[in-house]
Amino acid sequence: xxxxxxxxxxxxxxxxxxxxxxxxxxxxxxxxxxxxxxxxxxxxxxxxxxxxxxxxxxxxxxxxxxxxxxxxxxxxxxxxxxxxxxxxxxxxxxxxxxxxxxxxxxxxxxxxxxxxxxxxxxxxxxxxxxxxxxxxxxxxxxxxxxxxxxxxxxxxxxxxxxxxxxxxxxxxxxxxxxxxxxxxxxxxxxxxxxxxxxxxxxxxxxxxxxxxxxxxxxxxxxxxxxx
Length: 227
Fold this sequence. Notes:
- The protein has about 230 residues and is α+β, with helices and mostly antiparallel strands.
- It has 9 helices and 8 strands.
- Helix 2 links the parallel strand 3 and strand 4.
- About 35% of the residues are buried.
């Protein structure tokens, strides 16, 4: 499968994905290009670059075919872009308005799942306590060090958003990390004052449903679009 020449806005070009009837923007990942890819008439954005993952896989194709939105970015690019805000705005614009409470739930779940996928998945960071300024500085320095590792920085993170006829949204976040026992964390109670480890219990509390797949590399969340 060949991607088209990069030409549109010097960042990306439109590409109709065979067998889906949907068009993606494909190219370098900038905030402006990703925002455009998430807007009509496109069905998402696929970043070109090293270590492309089998072009467009069956999961991405299925989401596009179902009228959903998809993103596939490298870790280096995803870390620099405020994906939570871009995706939340796109969800509301493309799939209908939601009330403030539901928007807040979607934003929090996106933020937690994307952060987990990038840090603990692709960058293979641990959950070391960051309860002091010096600890936080060391942790941020470690993130920057991992991002300078071309192998880790080139790992992809995928986001697949699929609407259903029942009025729900299915949101899947996929990373290329080593995997982990996500069910263990999903089964833990939410302890709001905990220093770390709150992300998955919080998602379980806010999302309509949540499940981990592929040894914890994929988190699938469901939200009702009704208030």
